[in-house]
TrEMBL record:
Swiss-Prot/TrEMBL GO biological process terms: translation
Annotated Gene Ontology cellular component terms: small ribosomal subunit
Protein name: Small ribosomal subunit protein uS10
Family classification: Belongs to the universal ribosomal protein uS10 family.
One Pfam family hit: Ribosomal_S10
Source taxonomy: Eukaryota, Fungi, Dikarya, Ascomycota, Saccharomycotina
Length: 117
């Protein structure tokens, strides 16, 4: 009987996963709020964490003519979109990750959770 109990105890050991949470947004303030909430939740569970790591901002530009016809002076408008990205690395069991990611995510922030072994 004692061998059966030892086997069941070994099976109940918690498997720790490496988790990367990618955050993407065009609005910095909302992105920082979401990352701060995730970090705060990770600290309450006393997890090993790294981040938020700020990645370089992507700037997408489009230049277009102002006038709809070809007449007049050649004036141009330039539009740009800035895409900000952050990632947070955590080491935690899967059931705790579910609790951490159950926060209110502000509109305009994309969250991607990647679990590696």
């Amino acid at each position: 009987m004692s061998q059966v109990e030892k086997k069941s105890e070994q099976q109940q050991e918690v498997v720790i996963h490496k988790i990367r949470i990618n955050l993407t947004s065009t609005k910095v303030k909302q992105l920082e709020n979401v990352s701060a909430n995730i970090i705060k939740n990770a600290e309450t569970f006393k997890l090993v964490k790294k981040g938020p790591v700020r990645l370089p901002t992507k700037v997408l530009k489009i230049s277009t003519r102002k006038t709809p016809n070809g007449e007049g002076s050649k004036t141009w408008d330039t539009y740009e979109m800035r895409i900000h990205k952050r990632y947070i690395d955590l080491e935690a069991p899967a059931h705790i990750v579910k609790r951490i990611t159950q926060i209110t995510i502000e509109p305009g922030v994309d969250v991607e959770v990647i679990i590696a072994a």
